[in-house]
Amino acid sequence: MKILLTGATGYIGKRLLPVLVDRGYFVICCVRDKSKFHLEESLSSMVEVVEADLNRSETLENIPADIDIAFYLVHSMSTSSEFDVLEKRSAINFRERINRTNVKQVIYLSGIVNSKTLSKHLNSRKRVEIELGRGNYALTTLRAGIIIGSGSASFEIIRDLVEKLPVMIAPKWLRTKCQPIAVSDIIKILTGVINLEETFNKGFDVAGRDILTYKQMLQIFASVRGLRRFIWSVPVMTPKLSSYWLYFITSTSYKLAVSLVESMKVEVIARDNNLLKILNINPLSYRESIELAFKRIEHNDIISSWKDSTISGRLDFRISDYIKVPEFGCYKDIRRSEVTSVPESLDRIWRIGGESGWYYANWLWRIRGFADKLFGGVGLRRGRTNVNSINAGDTLDFWRVLYASREERRLLLFAEMKLPGDAWLEFKIVGTTLIQTATFRPKGLLGRAYWYSILPLHGMIFRGLVRKLSL
Questions:
Q1: How much is the average pLDDT of 278-287?
Q2: Overall number of domains in the chain
Q3: Which residue from 121, 129, 313, 456 has the least number of CB within 10 angstroms?
Q4: Residue 295 CB contacts under 8 Å (≥ 6 apart), including other chains
Q5: Is residue 3 part of a domain?
């Protein structure tokens, strides 16, 4: 059986792919940017990758016709203020293309939409379901609330709040009720409904055992971590202030914070249905979900993270557009140093950022990250998904990985911080020489003034960094 997997580079898609292959399915991964897609060698014989942008109908011709099941796991939340328009267009384009294939069933992962008053995001999810339901295939809609797992947006935001703030004066939406579900249960449900006729042309709410307020979720998280936290909610915090509160305290982007705050005012509680009984799934409790997530983190076994999605950084970002570092009209800082040991220097390069820091003048990197947050950038809080491995498309603090090859001894990063221009940082070992190149392509006079104003700091930082990496 052939399965089409859209959103294959997303948080759920990355986790679903190996499970599908393990069950013997041949998977067609539909991605917007092939250069961002990293495929494990063990999966390659059972996976085909096609490049298609659901907002550009002509690219969907790359999707083969001989597929049996399709997963619709894409969304545009926070990529644009008009994400609802983009989502509707994507759903229509997808439906029209799938209508001309052999697809028997489309499985759509949506959000719980039981409240009379819905956020813009949840309204958009509902409209997508309506559009997909007009196809000539069977639609199975799975409506989930907050998904909890290592690397999920909800988990990381709750983690940031609990671990950084002993005392919280929080917005009134902390009293809103929701029904979180473990990502491991979501994967079981997604695979369980494949070709299951009992689910054809039906929608199901899927959720964990517990109905909790956001405040209770924070308190249980603190209990699991052995932390004592004091939380008060106040009615005077406006949605805009709430968004800024989330943005500055957590690793979320501002646009995503706005969407989240709007959705957090809506109760997302599942309606009773018998899907979990049909699939023989006993969902984890919220506490069990948190404990399982930390086991993954402790073993450095985080398969996917929301931070690696483009919604955590620059908009409309395609790796293929930036992987070739320009030469004309650019300023460069090139440093060379003889390395003591090539393998050890490569190890240090491959661990750079995140918890390992930047090896030299970390306090200056932190100041730069804080300044970036003040101006609406991503800051340093995204860290990195895996301590030891790096793949194209991953986030690395306020950088995006464009290219990473240990065999070629080369790592290329692109800046996603707020800048009056574009910036690249490259590490390459040729023979026993480490070549570190910082490239900046300015935009207008402001970009040129920025480069010269920070030239002394760059000189100190980059000189110290190349020295530390080559020891």
A1: 94
A2: 1
A3: 456
A4: none
A5: no
DSSP state letter for 103:
-
Q: Tell me if 456 is assigned to some domain.
A: yes
Does 118 map to a domain?
no
Asked if the model's pLDDT at residue 298 lies above 60, the reply is yes
Half-sphere exposure of 26 (CA within 13 A, CB side): 8
DSSP 350-381: HT-SGGGTTSS-HHHHHHHHHHHHHTT---ST
Sign of CA dihedral 218, 237, 307, 186: positive
Q: Is 0.70 surpassed by the pTM of this model?
A: yes
pLDDT mean over 396-424: 91
Q: Output the six-digit token pair for 362.
A: 């970390």
Q: Are 36 and 42 in contact (CB under 8 A)?
A: no
Buried b (16+ CB within 10 A) or exposed e, 59-91: bbeebeeebbbbbbbbbbbbbeeebbebbbbbb
Give the angle subtended at the CA of 250 by the CAs of 248 and 254, to the nearest 5°: 60
Q: What is the pLDDT of residue 376?
A: 76
Cα–Cα distance between 469 and 339 in angstroms, integer? 8
User: Is 315 a residue whose pLDDT tops 50?
Assistant: no
Domain annotation covers residue 419: yes
Domain around 400: 321-470
pLDDT at 202 over 90: yes
**Could you count the other beta carbons within 10 Å of the beta carbon of residue 143?**
24
Q: 46: pLDDT confidence band, cut at 50, 70 and 90?
A: very high
